[in-house]
Amino acid sequence: MSAFAQRVRRIPLAWPWWMQVLAVFAATRVFTTVVLLLAWRTQVGGAPHSWPHHTRPPLAVFLGRWWDGWWYQQIATGGYPSTLPTGPGGAVERNAWAFFPLYPMLVRAVTAVTGIGGEAAAVTVSVLLAGGAMLVLYRLVEVGAPRAVAARPGLPLATVTLVAVYPTSPVLQLAYTESLALLLLATSLLLVVRRRYWWAMIPVVALGFTRAVTLPMALVVVVHGAIRCRGRRTSPLPRRDLVALVGLTAVACVSGVAWPVIGDWVTKAPDGYLMTQEAWRVHRGVGPFDGWARLATMPWWLAVLVLGTLATLIALLASRSARRLGPELYAWSAGYVLYLVVVSDLITSLLRFLMLAFPLGAVTVGLVTTPPRRAGRWFALVVVCSLVLQVAWVWVIWRDLPASHHVGAP
């Protein structure tokens, strides 16, 4: 490598950390945008809801009103129904109450303030929130996993990179809640690590109106509190902190059930939220582990793939690299994976849900720490594999939408 090339290569390393993070995020968005545009240009299936079949939609519709984006647009423009729609047999049909309100309300606010269309507003909100999430995520890994960072220098930026190239990361620039959820989750964890418990209540409450992922946060707070209680001889636990920890745990629990309770109250339908969720689970219930009933109907190779993915997650959580995480990041990763196993359905959206287990990105990077050259090759291999899988995911989910598909998998 020439001296000039070496100097050019070192330039980004001299940038402030936040510039490096945003540069990585921008570069990955360029790649993802190209993949999405290619999928749009070659789209072959039908289209969701009322869009004419066998025609390519406008790009704004493709980016801001596809799959779940259609539901968020309905909520942003018309809100939620006061009664649950039912079919001829009396069963509750799919409706907006399955989708949480904070993201579409932000889209509505941006539309009202700027005057731009709803689709453009949705994409703008997602991209800006995702950029903010990357910055907070970097600081969280730096502060919340010091042992892991010491073992693998550059881990915070590497973790940001893996999240940004994650196979389903295109949703960070589409009409989905992942950007908002990632920002609120990383902020909540960072505030807990920094012992700002009262401030942490704000993003935890907001998270409860973004995605159904708040209950595992209560486990994080309990683990954090238990560690502080155990170490109070060397690091005092003031009464105000103890009160705040109890309050934060209660807030996380209440926030985790607030939206379903509100939906039931507004529609005057007990268990209305659960019945709405059942509308997306034909012939399957919404109880613990009910989603795994789909495993019996899958082709053998797909069932093996699902079980292999679960085994990989367990192996990552049991690895030495995972043990180097801070207790809060480990508790979130383990608690969230267990939560998904218990409550989620075995659908393609599960890959998208796993993005919020982002500390496992740090674990993956930390599987190989020495020598530096070998660690670099391992990181590069993971990035390339993620990008290949991202292309495959977009090609399968975003390019081919048969008219028979149901839109909006919450």
Percentage of helical residues? 55-70%
Main sheet makeup = none
Number of helices in the DSSP assignment: 19
Rounded mean pLDDT is 89
SSE arrangement:
Layout: H1 3-10, H2 17-41, H3 59-64, H4 68-78, H5 102-114, H6 118-144, H7 146-151, H8 155-164, H9 178-193, H10 197-208, H11 215-230, H12 239-267, H13 272-278, H14 300-318, H15 320-323, H16 327-343, H17 349-353, H18 359-365, H19 372-399
Short account of what is shown:
The chain has 410 residues and is mainly alpha-helical.
Short key terms for the protein model shown above:
mainly alpha; 19 helices; globular
Textual characterization of the structure:
The protein has one domain. The protein is built from 19 helices and no strands. It has helices spanning about 5-10, 15-40, 60-65, 70-80, 100-115, 120-145, 145-150, 155-165, 180-195, 195-210, 215-230, 240-265, 270-280, 300-320, 320-325, 325-345, 350-355, 360-365, 370-400. By secondary structure, the protein is mainly alpha-helical.
